[in-house]
Design a protein that fits this description.
Chain A: This is Aspartyl/glutamyl-tRNA(Asn/Gln) amidotransferase subunit B. The complex is a heterodimer of chains A (505) and B (492). Chain A is built from 16 helices and 16 strands. Chain A is an alpha+beta fold and 505 residues long. Chain B is α/β, with parallel strands linked by helices. The chains are: A alpha+beta (505), B alpha/beta (492). At the A-B interface, loops of A face helix 9 of B.
Chain lengths: 505, 492
């Protein structure tokens, strides 16, 4: 199926420094909140926006003697995500404690999976335009707990802590350093988000912080990256800096752009990039040092003794695999292959699974893929966007839009009438075929009636007839006049043929 | 005999026969507790709760609905969360902490009809072998030599002292490296640490999660069998609780161990071991042989590495488990000075809240887990742990049914006697017991005799995993043969 979508890798982004050209090497660690009603190790709710400290179980607040118990659904979601990224599923994984003190981390450690993650190597195809895509390798996915929220701006002297998010399940999805430019990095996050949403394993809501990325950026001279690829030796690459906690694609691009130029300036000045963690300030569009390697926490990772190694069975994984939805790449390929859509249209329609489902609903009624794509993308999306509606809020159902396209396809209505019909259905509702019938919107294919109208127009415009005989292109003017006279209901190709015949063109 | 001196088994039979009521036994215990402040065993007394539970138990007994522990008054180690009743692991850092939840073990006991007399002191966070690290001051052993006050051992020292002095019929303990078995031996009572995973850790304040296990401390082996049956359960709230049914341990006490193979590990014969301990051990061997068991010399070659490995693993886990005591949500929070921030709050709170031994272990644990030392200490200790477990596995695979060792390297020592000693000397108290925790096995301490000073001494039996019934039966035979019936004379 994917044969329809052969691709070439994009060219790496090249930034011209003062002295030389530079390339970027980027890897991302995406923290995706697992879609689950309950937390990773407690039964507490994960509902966003609840009263502070209302979704907190004893174990989330780290009360003495409380113990974590793994939420099977969260494990299934991680496995589903792994399968969606064509990754290796580790039947045996284990949880470790990452120890550090922070008021919104009640246990004093985060339970994570450092040594034995649940998902191993996979890949994501990041589309960069028709026929161009980057294959980004996924190193691992592990499950871990989110921390709570510290609030420092409510009181001049005190800080507040909200533990609602404490213990919510996160998947940390770690890529290899395969990304070669800011646009690719944003596209990677976009594609990952799309796949997660298709899988239903993360809602991808970046505003609420449900999808956040740590971005590792380094620079190298052209050719160095290829040497790294051949040898796997990281010394060919520059020292990386990690930009923490980015929750917007736009900021990811801007931060990488800024960070690359900062590193280039340092190196071209004869300096050395220091490995450190940095924060991006969108107001000033710059990254700032958060802590250096020397100041880095010693997390004292060790196996969490409260949890036995997580052992899952292949049969359970197979059951999850059997219920996997069709993913964006496959769906896009099928839309191109089965419906003859352009790769561009197929991309637009598969961007969100709801759009793709809507489109397929339209095709099911009208059996016209291209027509359906045209109407969904150009008319429906345009109209919804204008009014700020989501696809789920569309007043026109797939069946209704399919009915409209079907009427066009059968020649019952013209494209122009169809737009009027769409407007009626959009604002008033109703069955398109019945509306066409009731309001006499049917296209006139009766040659007798059309001929009469043509004759009248020719008879009424002798001067134009003379001109048209000199310049056959003017025939279009007659077609327009006939269409006007018939209220747009005449079949345009029939009119065109008759006009040409009568004018002897 | 007053009612507080009853064993669980005797009380159970008397209660069922209607010869006595739970309220009567409970009142006897409350009176004994009131007269025993000198022992400092109870850190919280709950006579109102006790009498209420006793009345309810009497009603159940009357209705003929009397589970195993119905009407039996118990003391509860301060490590177990008891809903609405102070639970502070004998630490200032949990000052005033009253949980909103009940530990699985205590809930199981209440469900079985037991009665709570109060909370029992212990070494702070179960770290210690003498009960001198308790924030409530040391617990005193009811056994005495001259006028010298002795330690009841630790960390379950309050439990041991209370049971030995008849301040309850039995008590809960917990054992991470010997904290049930060593104090049991020091006070002439029975204490069993079950197989790791037999008893739920939910609601028990954690010291070292991979080693901690709760168990009963009782006046007889039969009582240990009855009470272990009530404490144990398969608990979905504890991921390390094993999904293995709890058998009727008491039914296993047949008194017949003919043909069983008892292993005597040569590595437990330490240089400089007191002659009395050596003799006690030999006596125990003779008793089991006389009962028809076959005595086999065995080797557990990695024993000598157990103590160092334990004192890496246990502090490592503790350093992480105790990170939650930060002054943010509950317990003690230090008063802060002007300009103090979150770091100062952590530092001052923990410096004030934790005693020196806890601080020492948190620092050791933090050190052995830190980057650059992790492999040399923690990972190496884990490998040693695996080897120690394999030593036992091989012995059991050779057909050994139980292993007999001393429980402690000495009898009870004086309070304050180790104050100026190197902490490692105190750690040596665990030398015979830590291997059992590292291997996750069941181990029981049984009082077998008195030393020349008139102090009790115990022997330890180590059993196959999940074979507590068989282990208890061996202990039962040893108990019967030893006929240990000495009691401390009341001075308090």
């Amino acid at each position: 199926m994917l044969d329809h979508l052969a691709f070439e890798p994009p060219k790496p982004k090249v930034i011209a420094g003062a002295k030389a050209d530079w390339e970027l090497v980027i890897g991302l660690e995406v923290h995706a909140q697992v879609s689950s009603n309950a937390k990773l190790f407690s039964g507490a709710s994960t509902t966003f926006g609840a009263e502070p400290n209302s979704n907190v179980a004893f174990v989330d607040a780290a009360m003495p003697g409380m113990l974590p118990v793994i939420n099977e659904y969260c494990v299934a979601q991680a496995v589903r995500t792994g399968l969606g990224l064509k990754a290796e599923i580790n039947l045996r994984s284990a949880f470790d404690r990452k120890n550090y003190f922070y008021p919104d981390l009640p246990q004093g450690y985060q339970i994570s999976q450092l040594y034995h993650p649940i998902v191993g190597e996979g890949e994501i195809i990041v589309d960069m335009g028709p026929g161009v895509a980057r294959r980004v390798r996924i190193e691992r996915i592990h499950l871990e707990q989110d921390a709570g929220k510290s609030i420092h701006d409510m009181d001049p002297h005190m800080s507040f802590v909200d533990l609602n998010r404490t213990g919510v399940a996160l998947m940390e999805i770690v890529s290899r350093p395969d990304i070669r430019g800011p646009e690719e990095a944003a596209a990677y996050v976009g594609k990952l988000r799309q796949i997660l949403r298709y899988l239903g394993t993360c809602d991808g809501n970046m505003q609420n912080g449900n999808l956040r990325a740590d971005v590792n950026v380094s620079i190298c001279k052209p050719g160095a990256y290829e040497k790294y690829q051949e040898t796997g030796d990281f010394s060919h690459l520059g020292t990386r800096c990690e930009i923490k906690n980015m929750n917007s694609m736009r900021f990811i691009q801007a931060a990488i752009e800024y960070e690359a130029r900062r590193q280039i300036a340092i190196v071209e000045d004869g300096g050395e990039v220091v490995q450190e963690t940095r924060l991006y300030d969108p107001d000033k569009n710059e990254t700032r040092s958060m802590r250096s390697k020397e100041e880095a926490h010693d997390y004292r990772y060790f196996p969490c003794p409260d949890l036995l190694p997580l052992e899952i069975e292949q049969a359970w994984v197979d059951d999850i695999a059997a219920t996997m939805p069709e993913l964006p790449d496959e769906k896009k390929a099928r839309f191109v292959g089965d419906f003859g859509l352009s790769e561009y249209d197929a991309s637009v329609l598969t961007a969100e699974v709801e759009n793709a489902d809507y489109f397929e609903g339209v095709v099911a009624v009208c059996a016209d893929g291209k027509g359906a794509a045209n109407w969904v993308i150009n008319e429906l999306f345009g109209r919804l966007k204008k009014e700020g509606h989501e696809i789920g809020e569309s007043p026109v159902s797939p069946e209704q839009l399919g009915g409209i396209v079907k009427l066009i396809k059968s020649g019952d209505i013209s494209g122009k009438i169809a737009k009027d019909l769409f407007e009626i259905v959009y604002t008033e509702g109703g069955d398109p075929a019945e509306i066409v019938e009731a309001r006499g919107m049917k296209q006139v294919t009766d040659t007798g009636a059309i001929e009469k109208a043509v004759d009248e127009v020719i008879a009424g415009n002798p001067a134009q007839v003379e001109k048209a005989k000199q310049n056959p292109k003017l025939a279009g003017w007659f077609v327009g006049q006939v269409m006007k006279a018939t209220g747009g209901k005449a079949n345009p190709s029939a009119v065109d043929a008759l006009v040409k015949e009568k004018l002897g063109l | 005999m007053s009612l507080n001196q009853l064993t669980i088994a005797a009380a159970r039979d008397a209660l069922k026969a209607g010869d006595v009521t739970s309220v009567e036994i409970t009142e006897a215990c409350i009176a004994a507790i009131e007269g025993a402040d000198a022992l400092n065993a109870y850190c919280a007394k709950t006579p109102e709760i006790a009498l209420e539970q006793a009345k309810a138990a009497d009603a159940r007994l009357k209705a003929g609905d009397a589970p195993a522990m119905c009407g039996i008054p118990l003391g509860i180690k301060d490590l177990f969360a008891t809903k609405g009743v102070g639970t502070q692991a004998a630490s200032n850092i949990l000052a005033g902490f009253k949980p909103e939840y009940e530990s699985t073990v205590t809930q199981n006991l209440w469900d079985a009809g037991a009665v709570m007399l109060g909370k029992l002191s212990m070494d702070e966070f179960a770290m210690g072998s003498s009960n001198e690290t308790a924030c409530y001051g040391p617990v005193v052993n009811p056994w005495k030599v001259d006028d010298r006050k002795l330690t009841p051992g630790g960390s379950s020292g309050g439990s041991a002292s209370a049971v030995a002095a008849d301040l309850c019929l039995a008590a809960t303990g917990t054992d991470t490296g010997g904290s049930i078995r060593q104090p049991a031996a020091f006070t002439g009572i029975v204490g069993i640490k079950p197989t790791y995973g037999r008893v739920s850790r939910w609601g028990v304040v954690a010291f070292a999660s991979s080693l901690d296990q709760a168990g009963p401390m009782t006046k007889s082996v039969r009582d240990a069998a009855i009470m272990l049956g009530a404490m144990a359960s398969v608990d979905p709230k504890d991921s390390t609780s094993a999904d293995i049914p709890v058998p009727d341990f008491e039914a296993a006490l047949t008194g017949d161990i003919r043909g069983k193979k008892i292993g005597i590990p040569r590595e437990y014969r330490l240089d400089g071991m007191p002659a009395e301990i050596e003799k006690l051990w030999n006596d125990g061997i003779a008793m089991l042989r006389d009962a028809g068991a076959e005595i086999v010399d065995i080797s557990l070659p990695h024993t000598k590495y157990a103590l160092p490995a334990y004192y890496v693993i246990a502090p490592a886990e503790a350093s992480s488990n105790l990170a939650r005591y930060d002054g943010v949500r509950y317990g003690h929070r230090a008063k802060l000075g002007k300009g103090d921030g979150i770091t100062e709050m952590y530092e001052k709170t923990r410096a004030e809240g934790f005693g020196p031994e806890v601080q020492r272990r948190v620092m050791i644990g933090t050190y052995v887990l830190s980057a650059g030392f992790y492999d040399a200490y923690y990972n190496r200790a884990r490998r040693v742990r695996a080897l120690i477990k394999r030593d036992f596995d091989l012995a059991f695979a050779d057909g050994i049914d139980a292993i007999l060792t001393p429980a402690t390297p000495s009898s009870a020592f004086g309070l304050g006697e180790m104050a100026s000693a190197d902490p490692v000397e105190m750690y040596l108290n665990d030398v015979f017991t830590v291997t059992v925790n590292l291997a996750g096995l069941p181990g029981i301490s049984v009082p077998v005799g008195l030393d020349a000073k008139g102090l009790p001494m115990g022997l330890q039996l180590i059993g196959r995993p999940w074979a507590e019934g068989d282990l208890l039966n061996h202990a039962y035979v040893l108990e019967q043969a030893a006929g240990f019936s000495a009691k401390p004379s009341k001075w308090w």
